[in-house]
């Protein structure tokens, strides 16, 4: 049912360029560079306060210890001053932490906002074959889950990374001013920390990527099962659908616990290492104090520094896990952004400016793969001519109109509109000339009025109502309690299928295109609605060149020309009566429908 992602198909996701991905992601933060500079200044200020406060607090301990030891009494005035200074420093540190988080929230949200805008613009420029190969659920997961993950982890990880780096440098310098021997012992945590990170990082990164891919596949399966729940129940497919869900869910569980296990194991390993080093420092420090080599206040300060020194190193595992998560999500976003867009040809193709045909297919070749579906298709359509396209399933009817709209690029030959090669037009210029009504209706959650006006945002109310009346939409809309202000729900199932189709036809007519395509537009409607559409076509197809793809031959009897396609080529052409008299493919299709109707 689902066009699953690579993990769901059993392909092992491999970590990619971590440094390159991070560098590219940081390039999206250039608009926030001054905020980042402010964050850096605030982080330096806060870290300096955090670094200096233990040293000053140690002076208080030394003052108390000296007063007790020498029996001179404690200078409470001096002690109060020291404690007041430390308290103010702690308050200032809390303020800097708040400002740092606030500014980084702005930076991270600005970054993901820019990424989302690029992703949305990119999706609009992707060719149709991209959506043929990728599930909607996976794309939704990238646009929502991965973007949220980048925003959250970017805020947390970069803030911690910046503060931790400054803290390590400052603490290391002050520890050296107290005792180089104890600093050397504290420094033992560094090589072992990097060893732990080296062992656990590859597994964590690999499973982070797996988790996100499986999450996209699971979203796709849930979306398909939800949209097709009626069909699933009708064919007793509930158990099979549940088995598919359980398979994706199990894959997500496996990747999830492994990514959390390997990523989360770094923190307890770092804490164990930190505690072992702390015990060694306490032992050696006590000996140094007893020997008079270090003041007791300085030892207290050093123990605090050793905790501060090991804390960012321990947090580095969390920071690293966050960075791995950011990279995994960013890679998925960049994969979409790096996809090849719809072709925009730099070179010009020969035009036929003197051509009298409105649309001309000339020796067109096309195939979805290496094998060509159309090998040498030619057709000339005159202005205001209605061309009906019929043929058995797979004959190439829909492919023909998709090529006209450049949803797919031709492999050879040319398609011209008003004598101009369609490849010389931008996609916007081309689609302004062509309107299309599909077999599968698409309406968005909104009012009926807004759905019709979608065809021409600049249309007046009178034009919207005129299009609705011409498409016989006005008749049933006026009977609804809210009329044109009736809000269609998410699945637009509060009106019938035929009514939905009429609204899409009214929308296409409001757009007033030069060329109109009806791709089996009447296949999902009842006989009465089909008759309404036929009446509407007689009024609204006047002055337009139109292509009508139809299975029901009763909708195309009045077409100026009927072309019969088979395996990508035109095998017959003529009007209804001429093709019946020819007793060929069209006659076979007509007789099969007529006989089935009689039966």
Automatic annotation (TrEMBL):
Signal peptide: none annotated. The chain crosses the membrane at residues 34-53, 73-91, 157-176, 182-201, 276-303. Gene3D superfamilies: ABC transporter type 1, transmembrane domain, P-loop containing nucleotide triphosphate hydrolases. The keyword Protein biosynthesis does not apply. InterPro entries: AAA+_ATPase (IPR003593), ABC1_TM_dom (IPR011527), ABC1_TM_sf (IPR036640), ABC_transporter-like_ATP-bd (IPR003439), ABC_transporter-like_CS (IPR017871), P-loop_NTPase (IPR027417), Type_1_exporter (IPR039421). It is found in: Cell membrane. SMART domains: AAA. One of its GO terms (molecular function) is ATP binding. Residues 37-325 form the ABC transmembrane type-1 domain. CDD domains: ABC_6TM_Tm288_like, ABCC_Glucan_exporter_like. Residues 359-592 form the ABC transporter domain. Keywords: ATP-binding, Membrane, Nucleotide-binding, Transmembrane, Transmembrane helix. The keyword Transmembrane helix applies. It is a multi-pass membrane protein. It holds the Pfam family ABC_membrane. SUPFAM superfamilies: ABC transporter transmembrane region (SSF90123), P-loop containing nucleoside triphosphate hydrolases (SSF52540). This is Multidrug ABC transporter ATP-binding protein. It comes from Enterococcus wangshanyuanii.
């Amino acid at each position: 049912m689902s066009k699953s992602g690579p993990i769901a198909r059993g392909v092992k996701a491999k970590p990619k360029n971590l440094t390159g991905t991070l560098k590219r992601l940081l390039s999206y933060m250039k608009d926030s560079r001054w905020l980042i500079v402010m964050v850096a200044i605030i982080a330096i200020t806060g870290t300096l306060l955090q670094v200096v406060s233990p040293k000053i607090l140690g002076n208080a301990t030394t003052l108390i210890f000296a007063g007790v030891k020498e029996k001179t009494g404690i200078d409470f005035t001096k002690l109060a001053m020291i404690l007041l200074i430390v308290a103010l420093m702690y308050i200032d540190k809390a303020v800097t932490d708040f400002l740092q988080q606030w500014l980084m929230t702005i930076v991270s949200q600005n970054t993901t906002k820019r990424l989302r805008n690029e992703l949305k613009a990119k999706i609009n420029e992707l060719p149709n074959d991209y959506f043929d190969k990728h599930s909607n659920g996976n794309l939704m997961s990238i646009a929502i889950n991965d973007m949220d993950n980048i925003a959250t982890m970017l805020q947390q990880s970069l803030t911690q990374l910046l503060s931790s780096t400054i803290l390590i440098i400052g603490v290391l310098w002050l520890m050296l001013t107290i005792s180089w021997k104890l600093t050397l012992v504290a420094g033992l945590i560094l090589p072992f920390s990097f060893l732990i990170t080296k062992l656990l990082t590859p597994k964590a990164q690999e499973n982070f990527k797996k988790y996100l891919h499986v999450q996209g596949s699971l979203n796709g399966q849930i979306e398909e099962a939800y949209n097709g729940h009626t069909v699933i129940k009708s064919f007793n497919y509930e158990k099979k659908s549940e088995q598919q869900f359980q398979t994706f869910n199990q894959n997500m569980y496996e990747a999830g616990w492994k990514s959390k296990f390997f990523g989360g194991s770094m923190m307890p390993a770092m804490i164990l290492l930190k505690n072992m080093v702390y015990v060694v420092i306490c032992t050696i420090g006590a000996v140094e104090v007893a020997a008079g080599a270090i003041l007791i206040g300085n030892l207290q300060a050093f123990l605090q520094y050793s905790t501060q020194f090991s804390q960012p190193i321990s947090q580095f595992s969390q920071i690293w896990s966050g960075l791995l998560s950011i990279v995994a999500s960013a890679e998925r976003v960049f994969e979409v952004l790096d996809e090849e867009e719809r072709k925009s040809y730099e070179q010009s193709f020969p035009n036929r400016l003197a051509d009298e045909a409105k649309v001309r297919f000339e020796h067109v070749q096309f195939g979805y793969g290496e094998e060509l579906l159309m090998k040498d298709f030619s057709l000339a359509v005159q202005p205001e001519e209605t061309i009906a396209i019929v043929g058995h399933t797979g004959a190439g009817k829909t492919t023909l109109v998709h090529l006209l709209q450049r949803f797919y690029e031709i492999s050879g030959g040319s398609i011209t509109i008003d004598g101009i090669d369609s490849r010389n037009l931008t996609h916007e210029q081309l689609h302004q000339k062509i309107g299309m009504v599909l077999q599968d209706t698409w309406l968005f959650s909104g009012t009926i009025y807004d759905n019709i006006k979608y065809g021409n945002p600049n249309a007046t109310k009178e034009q919207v109502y005129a299009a609705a009346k011409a498409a016989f939409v006005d008749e049933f809309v006026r009977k609804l309690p809210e009329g044109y202000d009736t809000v269609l729900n998410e699945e637009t199932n509060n009106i019938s299928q035929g009514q939905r189709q009429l609204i899409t036809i009214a929308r296409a007519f409001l757009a007033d295109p030069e060329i109109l395509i009806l791709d089996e537009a009447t296949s999902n409607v009842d006989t009465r609605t089909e008759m309404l559409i036929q009446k509407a076509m007689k009024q609204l197809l006047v002055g337009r060149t139109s292509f009508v793809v139809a299975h029901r031959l009763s909708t195309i009897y009045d077409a100026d020309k009927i072309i019969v396609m088979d395996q990508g080529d035109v095998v017959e052409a003529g009007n209804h009566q001429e093709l019946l008299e020819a007793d060929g493919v069209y006659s076979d299709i007509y007789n099969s429908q007529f006989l089935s109707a009689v039966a």
